[in-house]
Amino acid sequence: MSSGDNIAKRNLIAAIADEDSITGLLLAGIGQVSNEKGKEKNFMTYVPGKTTEEDIEEAFETFTSKRNDIAILLINQHIADLIRYKVDTFTNAFPAILEIPSKEHPYDPEKDSVLKKIRKLFGE
Length: 124
Prior knowledge:
Layout: H1 3-9, E1 12-18, H2 19-28, E2 43-46, H3 53-66, E3 70-76, H4 77-80, H5 84-89, E4 96-100, H6 113-121
C-alpha cells in the first residue's frame, strides 16, 4: 500500500472534548458511529470527575495510533494539558492535532503544541 492510499483513507475528524464542545461538533456533523471493532466512534466526551487521565490517554492513542481513518484530532486545550507529554511528543503528520478552546477554558497560545513546534522551527 502506498502512502497516498493511506492518506486517502484519512477522512474523519475525531474529538476529545468536554460535553458542550462535543455537542456542538456532533451537531456540526463530525460524529461517526460504526459497528467495526476499534472504530466504534470518533469522539470521546470528557466529564470532570468521571473521566480519568487513563481514559484520555487511551482515546488519544486510539485516534492517533490505532486508527488509520482520522485526519484531524480536535482536543480541548485544558484536556490536552492533562496529557501534555503525549500531545507535545506526537510527531506524525497525521492526524493533525488541533487544540481548541472550550466555553469554560480560554485558548492559551503559549501552551499550544503546534505553535511551540513552529516557533522552534523559526528559532524563536
